[in-house]
């Protein structure tokens, strides 16, 4: 394997001619419902760089949506997954088990918050993990209702569409959705009517009141929340919100589920984002960053809750595939060896410093938020009215792409530019990416 030079290089228009050719073939054969942020076809990727088929090298501020935290061709991931591929690709853990699956569950028990006895089950995608967390919680409590939050995102399967807040593009035209799902407010500090300082206490009181009065706490199997909301706009629930909701769940026998699919595995500068406020979830769902790009997901939690399900009640043909498990072990090894939590915190320091300076010049930046290498800016037409400016987010993303910087947007109002660099990105590339963002502001 040749390491990819960690240098931005733009040698054609973006997308270039080879990408455009491939895009034409793609349009003819790939379903139109599957979108792409940037139709640049990938040749190879690693570190902080994605290289396309035209020889352009893009700075990666996306990590394939918070997946390749260790890089897209991390040495330990490639080594371990390749060795596993040569040994065997699949037996199905439900037919004849293998050690890698057990090792991943041991690592999850060690790394997730809380020192209680824990067990895990492995799956293929984040949505599948969330679905299974709901199955486990219902089985354990004998209750049906599931509570989720404004701006929440939990996946694209039928149940997880119901759990997801935003209609377009995730839910539009795809109903009917699963029943017994209830949505309550979240402490979105920037947009909380009485100010960010009141958001934690007021939003948690409102949420708890709605759950108690409209659903009935005794009917609720699970409360599911992202400790930092991802697709909804990198919203960090205001201080006090998560602990209040977790406490309410504990008092009422409700399974508290932290969906750390995007925020977990060093992304926010901790193994898991809920550690910031000392919240210990009953169940935690993980995916994305867990396996360096290989498809793997997990539900981890209190042993007595996980074991409430009858034997054979959890599983799936490919869940915890041996190659994906090997990838996860390589990814976790890399995170520990390179102390990627510290790297994520350093990325936050650099990014927030630079973005704060940009905000002084460009008032369209209404809010700078996020933790670790999960940082976003919310764009507004006027900082006084906070009217969302989705067009600005789109124009900035486009300008960055043209210069060879891969950035993503998100947010309920589509007005958030989010930055998710691989945690292994070099600081020079990080700063060069920020230079491009600054130039993009000057140009819009
Ligand atoms: C991406 C995501 C999911 C869904 O994961 P998939 O692997 O795409 O099914 C669920 N929850 C959160 C918080 C996510 O960011």
From TrEMBL:
Its cofactor is pyridoxal 5'-phosphate. It comes from Streptomyces genisteinicus. It catalyses: (S)-3-amino-2-methylpropanoate + 2-oxoglutarate = 2-methyl-3-oxopropanoate + L-glutamate; 4-aminobutanoate + 2-oxoglutarate = succinate semialdehyde + L-glutamate. It comes from the Bacteria. CDD domains: OAT_like. This is 4-aminobutyrate aminotransferase. One of its GO terms (biological process) is gamma-aminobutyric acid metabolic process. Signal peptide: none annotated. Keywords: Aminotransferase, Pyridoxal phosphate, Transferase. Pfam families: Aminotran_3. The gene is gabT. It is an enzyme of class 2 (transferase). One of its GO terms (molecular function) is 4-aminobutyrate:2-oxoglutarate transaminase activity.
């Amino acid at each position: 394997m040749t390491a990819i030079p960690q240098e931005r290089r733009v040698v054609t228009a973006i997308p270039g001619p080879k990408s455009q050719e491939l895009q034409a073939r793609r349009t003819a054969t790939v379903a139109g419902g599957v979108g792409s942020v940037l139709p640049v076809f990938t040749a190879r990727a690693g570190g902080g760089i994605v290289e396309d088929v035209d020889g352009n090298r893009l700075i990666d501020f996306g990590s394939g949506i918070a997946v390749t935290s260790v890089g897209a061709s991390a040495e330990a991931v490639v080594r371990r997954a390749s060795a596993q591929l040569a040994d065997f690709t699949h037996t199905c853990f439900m037919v004849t088990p293998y050690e890698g699956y057990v090792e991943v569950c041991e690592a999850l028990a060690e790394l997730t918050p809380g020192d209680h006895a824990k067990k895990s089950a492995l799956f293929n995608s984040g949505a599948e993990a969330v679905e299974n967390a709901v199955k486990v919680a219902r089985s354990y409590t004998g209750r049906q209702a599931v509570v989720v939050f404004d701006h929440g995102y939990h996946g694209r399967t039928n149940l997880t569409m119901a759990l997801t807040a935003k209609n377009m593009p995730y839910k539009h035209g795809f109903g009917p959705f699963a029943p017994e799902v209830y949505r309550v407010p979240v402490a979105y500090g920037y947009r909380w009517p009485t100010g960010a300082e009141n958001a934690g206490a007021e939003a948690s009181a409102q949420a708890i009141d709605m759950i108690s009065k409209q659903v009935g706490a005794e009917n609720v199997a699970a409360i599911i929340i992202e400790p930092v909301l991802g697709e909804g706009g990198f919203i960090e629930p205001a201080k006090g919100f998560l602990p209040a909701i977790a406490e309410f769940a504990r008092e009422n026998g409700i399974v508290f589920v932290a969906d750390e699919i995007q925020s977990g595995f060093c992304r926010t500068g901790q193994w898991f984002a809920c550690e910031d406020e000392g919240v210990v979830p009953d169940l935690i769902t993980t995916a994305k960053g867990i396996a360096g790009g290989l498809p793997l997901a997990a539900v981890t939690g209190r042993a007595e809750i996980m074991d409430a399900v009858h034997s054979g009640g959890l599983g799936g043909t490919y869940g915890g595939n041996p190659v994906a498990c090997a990838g996860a072990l390589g990814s976790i090894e890399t995170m520990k060896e390179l102390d990627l939590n510290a790297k994520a915190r350093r990325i936050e320091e650099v990014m927030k410093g630079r973005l704060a300076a940009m905000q002084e010049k460009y008032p369209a930046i209404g809010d700078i938020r996020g933790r670790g290498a999960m940082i976003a800016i919310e764009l507004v037409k006027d900082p006084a009215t906070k009217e969302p400016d989705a067009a600005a987010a789109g124009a900035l993303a486009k300008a960055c792409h043209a210069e060879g910087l891969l950035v993503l947007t998100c947010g309920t109002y589509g007005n958030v530019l989010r930055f998710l660099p691989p945690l292994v990105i070099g600081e020079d590339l990080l700063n060069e990416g920020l230079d491009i963002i600054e130039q993009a502001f000057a140009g819009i």
